Request: fold
Amino acid sequence: MDILGIDHVEFYVGDARQAAFFLCTAFGFHIAGHGGPETELPRQRSLLLAHGDSRVLLTSALGSAHPADGYVSRHGDGVGVIAFATGDATADYEEAVAAGATSVEAPRTYKDGADSVTTASVSGFGDVVHRFVERHGDSFWPGAIEAQAAPPRENADLVRSIDHVAALVPAGELESTIEYYQRVFGFKLIFEEYIEVGAQGMYSQVVQSPSGSATFTIIQPDMSRQSGQIDDFLAWHGGAGVQHLALSTDDIVTTVQTFAANGAGFAETPGTYYDALSERIGDIDLPVDRLRPLGVLVDQDHWGQMYQIFAKSMHIRRTFFWELIERHGAKTFGTSNIPALYAAKERELAGVRDSLATGATGALGALGATGALGAAG
Reply:
């Protein structure tokens, strides 16, 4: 199977226009196309958003027959489809079904003059579907999504592509999910670890397409430990699902500054995290005094360094959120930031306890959850 990368991600949402307004205003996406009930798509309203090479399709059901209707009812707004770019959608679909995937949509070709797009869909994990997309020409989805020219914008390409997908599954489903992606899609297991966050614990495994352009971090909670953010997601989302998507950037400082000024909120990082950074990492490529006020996290592996930050969830269930990531050679996913953040938070709390013990008041009001514990990946 020749998966060339992530072609696009489709969100099922209650109100596509409202979701598009936030992503365009805060995260710099622009509307690149639209589709509605007058097109070949069944009873839905869709908006295609773009930023750099990232493509996000927002779809709202206009009737109970569309899968977005049931998805939003069960999970709230979230990722319903992750589409794979491929050179032969029909062959990949047939190979996936032969390997045990459930067929969701048989191959179909959409044409507009010389442009054509062939799509076919199979089951993924939870209620997430994978769509194979074979493209010939420039049209995104002939006859279904009408292209719309992008208006002139400042900082038009602060992000590039989708770096990776982070998915959470219930306890006991990690191994079977990993095996499914290896058997059906030909992904390879490239990284695994057990992560401790105070009294919490989680298992993480990463699979990647042979091309290296589609990467999934899949996490399950350790039920023998204290419950935490992974358990909260599974409860609020209603089962397995995509917790976050990471967008790659070549300038995380400018990107975070721009998005924050536009109204995007980001997880806060205690100052004590940066006090221990040089001891944990050593020499850092980017100036710490530029990272500290923004809350950008730093990690490194055998290949290099990486910088990441997590946006606050804007969903009513507080489930899905975005990540920004800048890689300086690093190939892993910043999971050591979880215990580092936890230790920094503990040092901050210890300082508050000391202040309270000496009669200081009001310090607790300055504390807030980092919003990123258990979220690295």
In short: Residues 360-374 have pLDDT under 50 and may be disordered. The longest helix spans residues 337-357.
